[in-house]
Amino acid sequence: MSLTPSSPRAVLFDLDGTLIDSLPDLVAAVNRMLAEWDRPALSAEAVKALVGGGAAILVERAFMTTGGPVTVEVGELLRRFMADYEPRSAESTRPWPAVIETLTRLKEAGLLLAVCTNKPSGATAVVLSKLGLAPFFDVVVGADDTPVLKPDPTHIHVILDRLGVTAAQAVMVGDSFNDIAAARAAGVPTVAVSFGYAHGPVAELGADRIIDDYRELPSVLGLDLPPPELVGMVSSFAREMAADRTRLRELLHDSNRAALLDHVHAMRGKCSMFGESSLADRLGQLEQDVLEATTNELDQLVAPIFERLEWLVPETP
Fold first, then answer.
1. Fewer CB within 10 Å, N side or C side of the chain?
2. Is 213 annotated as a binding-site member?
């Protein structure tokens, strides 16, 4: 089930859009900058389309999008932008759901963690500190720490060297083409988050895995493994999950919610036993709400369960 033959020694994370939702503060800062030049404000979606290539590209494209270049050079505009943005970079920025608990889980497992971002190093340090994320990371490499930015693999190589691990011992987690391309060029396996700032379908980024929730990451990394005494029964677990999926579909079309509750409870127990914690968590939420949920709410609850089951036990066409 895991991404690599054995659990990795290190995990590298992009920052904006991957670990944190920084778009609100970026939008506010971009629009404060544009207002000084009597330029129209940009929507959140417009700014999101400009994020990922570094602050200089963000500033330059913001002006090009709203009427073209101004009389001041990009370098000076960038300096002004960062002077305004950096001290306010964590006013509305927050970690994505389950980031803290996932980073805690990875550190408890003994993994080395790093941030690999095109964000300026000063703003990166401010955000990580204010959001309480800094203590999790052994290495942080921002835009000012290497001569080139992602998708150049130099960022990745610098981090691997500092951590003392090989490409095969690491995994890169990102949300954009730049993240995935840099990691692939460095020979590092990749995980893409589906909820970031990708400039197109995440499935087209070419990542080795895609996650919809950070609680899936430990399993993808091979950390949520069954106890040693159950390792030989993993294939049986997979067969049971396939059969349980079929029965779950049947019960969803039945009016007997009590039977559905019993089945979900049993599935959750199996998943917990075999270390499939992300699926167990989702089944637990369904178990909690199944008796009172409307049909539409039930559909929303089971959708991610079926997605995870498809990843665990792909259905043959």
1. C
2. no
Distance CA 153, CA 156 (A): 5
pTM, rounded to two decimals: 0.73
Please indicate if the annotation marks 161 as binding a ligand: no
Structural domain of residue 30, as residue ranges? 23-88
- 40-93, pLDDT tens digit by residue? 999 999 999 998 788 999 999 999 999 999 999 999 999 999 999 999 999 999
Residues 14 and 27 in one domain: no
Residue 179 is among the residues annotated as catalytic for this protein: no
Q: Which CATH number is 76's domain given?
A: 1.10.150.240
pLDDT tens track for 214-223: 988 988 887 8
Query: Could you give the residue ranges of the DSSP H alpha helices within the chain?
Result: 23-35, 44-48, 55-65, 74-85, 99-108, 121-130, 154-163, 177-186, 217-220, 234-252, 257-273, 277-289, 295-312
Residue 224 assigned ligand-binding role: no
Strand partners, 190: 172
Is the confidence at residue 234, as pLDDT, over 70? yes
